[in-house]
Amino acid sequence: MSPGPARGRTSGAEAAGRRGSVRRWQLVRAGSDAVPASTRRFMRRARQRRMRAALPWAVAAGLLALAGLVAWAVLGTGLFGVREVRVEGAELVNPVQVRDAAGIPDGVPLARVDLAGTARRIGALAPVQRATVTRDWPDALVVRVVERTGVAVVPQGERFVVIDDSGTVFRSLTQRPDGLPLIRVVEPGPDDPGTRAAVDVLGALTPQLRAALVDVTVESLALIKLRLDGDRTVVWGDASRGDDKARVATALLGQRAETIDVSAPDVVTFR
């Protein structure tokens, strides 16, 4: 018998035996009683700890997303855009002038409006002394205007300009308005020394002098004159010591004199 074929048959049998003996694995779900209770409690507590640790991050992420959505709606869309500009306190300027000076296009997001810049632009209108601008959600701007108050009127050619207590010219009229004293200066304005001197003199006058006043003429900074009714003249001199000069001039109003010189109130002359 040849040994070769025998070895070959033996090897084949062994291989078949090995193939028949391969184990087959199958996954099955263990019953709840297969895991010890202590292990289950540990795993439950671990899950709870993970959830508690993740909760603040989840809340923070939600809040950030909500804030981003709100910011986008407020700043990036016309949902809260300007639809109205309300003007309060304006008489010398009309609301259209105020809105034009504000320069806010319709639909601009209300939150993006530069309130201070808008107030400055409105305040540049001559009759406006100051302005404040506030937001009125969801779609309005409120402009509150404080206008200048006239203290005197200055003739300029065939017109009359009105000035406030700073000397600022803010109105030009064809007729002299009632109730304002007349001053005569060459170039009225806040930077004109003659205008400021005349305003200072007006501020020092007593009610009696103001009631009798016709006009104030600034011939020079050292020579200011008051013309009173009855063709009387008060030589005021410069604008200094206004209260003293007003008191002395008022005391002499009853004198029969065409000219009262109070430029040196300690030494008064009249004729």
Written account of the structure:
By secondary structure, this protein is of the alpha/beta class. The protein folds into 2 domains: 55-147, Roll (Ubiquitin-like (UB roll)); 152-270, Rossmann fold. 38% of the residues lie in helices and 24% in strands. It has 7 helices and 12 strands. It has a 6-stranded mixed beta sheet. Helix 5 (193-204) packs across helix 7 (242-251). The chain is elongated, with a radius of gyration of 47 Å.
Topology of this protein?
Blueprint: H1 3-20, H2 37-75, E1 84-88, H3 95-102, H4 115-123, E2 128-136, E3 140-147, E4 152-156, E5 159-163, E6 169-173, E7 182-184, H5 193-204, H6 207-212, E8 213-220, E9 223-228, E10 232-237, H7 242-251, E11 259-261, E12 269-270
Parallel strand pairs: 1-3, 7-8, 10-11
Antiparallel strand pairs: 2-3, 4-5, 5-6, 8-9, 9-10, 11-12
Helix pairs in contact: 3-4, 5-7
